[in-house]
Design goal:
Helices cover 68% and strands 0% of the residues. By secondary structure, it is mostly helical. The protein has a domain of 57 residues. The longest helix has 33 residues. It is elongated, with a radius of gyration of 21 Å. This is MICOS complex subunit MIC10.
Length: 90
């Protein structure tokens, strides 16, 4: 019994990446919000800026991860090797 595998469309791949990015954003911003609330109550006499700061840090980390997922050239240590056919055409 051989199974035929249908190739995944590029729309599905982009959709999966967006879903992962959204889930990552919700988790990291939620953790940041939680840490901010705890820090606000314990250390800063119920000020609101620790909540906003920690939530922003979580959202920024999620944005950076999403950017790396859509643009792998931004991953530190990654080299982009040009196509030899493109070099010969120039």
């Amino acid at each position: 019994m051989s199974e035929t595998h249908k190739p995944t469309s590029s729309e599905d791949i982009v959709g999966q990446k967006y879903d992962r990015c959204l889930a990552d954003f919700l988790v990291k911003a939620g953790v940041g919000f939680s840490v901010g609330v705890v820090a606000s109550v314990v250390f800063f006499r119920r000020r609101t800026w620790p909540i906003a700061l920690a939530t922003g840090f979580g959202a920024g980390a999620a944005y950076a991860d999403c950017d790396r997922s859509f643009n792998p050239a931004r991953v530190p240590g990654t080299r982009i090797i040009p196509n030899l056919d493109e070099l010969k055409a120039k």
